């Protein structure tokens, strides 16, 4: 215990000072996490941007249903169903749809891509003085700091007009992927004494191509890899107003702050282990299963180890099977379905095929194991994190970039929700909190305490 801890009693009383008796939540009918008793979300707003569907509530009964994710009314399956070689990239089109409300024509998309391309350049000296200087160990913090610092290079940063809001959003959608790769190499140089590779972006490349081209030391990648990364960006671009980082975007926007502060706050939320950072838990759990199950093709062995996890005897002793279950989806998560399909395409016939089959076994067996070990049947499906880390690993993308890639994709969704909040929200978001102090406490002078 250091001197500060010895002299500051709050360290000793942290749990006591901040604890609230569980009965208060029941007494005042507080919906923790803005969740109803049946797990459904409390309706906190209206949106035209996305619909996340996973169950049907009829006469007060919640019934599981096939998952659906729609962007501006368009089903995600429809947006990504075209696998033809001519249809190589979709992310830029998805960004346009989220920001502008409609799917673009060929001419509109070409103009949009041209604007994105023109915005990738960073201010003079930004990389050397702001990304490489005092580099923190987590890339998400570098992204948040970089976005806040870009405020200083915008003479109209406090402008809330539609023109400036759209320009700022497009600028960040274009720049954040580039900042991410530069930040990754700055991190590796500072903390791991590795070489710092600083490739220039290549004009005319898509967002997915730009990321791979800047990240790979030899700048080489296959068309399948670029298409897979493009699909992953599409899957993470938007997920309704209720997810934590998008709700953060709404809350901060409602206070009438600038765009840069808003998006930095959203990144802070996404970094959390219960949100975008959850993919690290999934990957770590999968690594432990691979290390401890001798025969990956033996479902009995896989089920036995899952039972240890469920019974808090393995992995992090929480009893959670990471990658399984979602707050909304019950029967299926469309993002996981699409991700799994493309993952199989990349894995079949390669060294990763056995691992892919193992993940399929985990997905299939987990609900059965939970029912057997706990005696409870849960409406549970694989979520997108079950396969996303595997896909990134197949492409050689470092784990430190998993959540930052999520942020690169979600910038367009956050921007769309910020726009909607500016136009339609009108009031600062301020829910109520009930105090546990029912009366006034008598004050005593410091000499009498």
TrEMBL record:
It comes from the Bacteria. Pfam families: Citrate_synt (PF00285). Keywords: Transferase. Coiled coil: none annotated. Pathway: Carbohydrate metabolism; tricarboxylic acid cycle. It catalyses: oxaloacetate + acetyl-CoA + H2O = citrate + CoA + H(+). Belongs to the citrate synthase family. This is Citrate synthase.
């Amino acid at each position: 215990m250091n001197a500060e801890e010895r002299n500051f009693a709050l360290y000793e009383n942290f749990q006591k000072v901040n604890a609230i008796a569980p009965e208060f939540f029941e007494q005042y009918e507080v919906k923790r996490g803005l969740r109803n008793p049946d797990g459904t979300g409390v309706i906190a707003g209206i949106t035209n941007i996305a619909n996340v569907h996973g169950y049907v509530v009829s006469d007060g009964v919640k019934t599981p249903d096939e998952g659906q994710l729609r962007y501006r009314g368009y089903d995600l399956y429809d947006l990504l169903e075209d696998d033809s070689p001519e249809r190589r990239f979709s992310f830029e089109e998805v960004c346009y749809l989220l920001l502008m409300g409609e799917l673009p024509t060929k001419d509109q998309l070409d103009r949009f891509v041209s604007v994105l391309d023109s915005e990738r350049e960073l201010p003079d000296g930004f990389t050397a003085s702001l990304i490489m200087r005092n580099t923190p160990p987590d890339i998400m913090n570098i992204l948040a700091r970089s976005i806040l610092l870009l405020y200083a290079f915008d003479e109209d940063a406090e402008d809330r007009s539609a023109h400036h809001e759209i320009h700022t959003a497009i600028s960040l959608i274009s720049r954040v992927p580039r900042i991410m790769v530069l930040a990754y190499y700055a991190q590796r140089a500072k903390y791991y004494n590795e070489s710092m590779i600083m490739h220039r972006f290549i004009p005319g490349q898509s967002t997915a191509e730009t990321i791979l081209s800047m990240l790979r030391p030899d700048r080489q990648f296959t068309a399948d890899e670029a298409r897979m990364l493009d699909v992953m960006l599409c899957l993470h671009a938007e997920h309704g107003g209720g997810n934590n980082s998008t709700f953060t975007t709404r809350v901060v926007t409602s206070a009438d702050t600038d765009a840069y502060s808003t998006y930095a706050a959203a990144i802070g939320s996404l970094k959390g282990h219960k949100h975008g950072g959850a993919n690290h838990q999934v990957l770590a759990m999968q690594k432990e299963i691979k290390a401890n199950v001798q025969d990956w093709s033996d479902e009995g062995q896989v089920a036995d180890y899952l039972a240890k996890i469920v019974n808090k005897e393995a992995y992090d002793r929480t009893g959670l099977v990471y990658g399984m279950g979602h707050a909304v989806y019950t029967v299926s998560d469309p993002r996981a379905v699409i991700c799994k399909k493309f993952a199989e395409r990349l894995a079949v016939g390669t060294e990763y095929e056995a691992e892919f089959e193992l993940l399929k076994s985990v997905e299939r067996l987990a609900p059965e194991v939970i029912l057997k070990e706990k005696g409870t049947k849960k409406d549970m499906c694989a979520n997108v994190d079950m396969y996303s880390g595997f896909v990134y690993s197949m492409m050689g993308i470092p784990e430190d970039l998993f959540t930052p890639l999520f942020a690169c994709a979600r910038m367009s969704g956050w921007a769309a929700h910020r726009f909607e909040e500016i136009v339609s929200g009108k009031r600062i978001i301020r829910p109520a909190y009930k105090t546990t102090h029912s009366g006034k406490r008598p004050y005593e002078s410091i000499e009498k305490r």
